[in-house]
Amino acid sequence: MRKNSIKNTRINGEVLKELSRIIRSEIKDPRIAPMTSVVQVEVAPDLKTCRAYISVLGDEKAAADTLAGLRSAEGFIRRELAHTVNLRNTPEIRFILDQSIEYGVNMTKLIDDVVGNERREEEEHEQNVEA
Fold this sequence. Notes:
The structure is a single chain. The protein is an alpha+beta fold. Helix content is 58%, strand content 17%. The protein has 2 domains: 6-98, 2-Layer Sandwich (GMP Synthetase, Chain A, domain 3), CATH 3.30.300.20; 100-131. The protein is built from 4 helices and 3 strands. The chain has a 3-stranded mixed β-sheet, sandwiched between helices. The longest helix has 31 residues, at 100-130. The model has no long low-confidence stretch (mean pLDDT 87).
């Protein structure tokens, strides 16, 4: 099975959906931040391993605590995944912190700051020309 086959894409989507549900409603670990989301899942073509990219809204400590909590609950998560997703093999899950959403939010803030500064400079310039 190729990595980008239709079957693999479907499996990735199903595992993503179930991982999101398990993290949101099944895990009771206080280290896991409430604003944790599964951004992307890549299941290997042989169904042995899975990389789950996790995004955490909060500071670096919250992200590190969430990652530690998820890693300690890997066995539970894998068992729940085996119950809900009917696969020949239940993949071994590796959680990876994805900072692309946080990066996007920071870039948007920087762009907004630059646009705001330009507007203020234009307004000051127009006031100086009128005077």
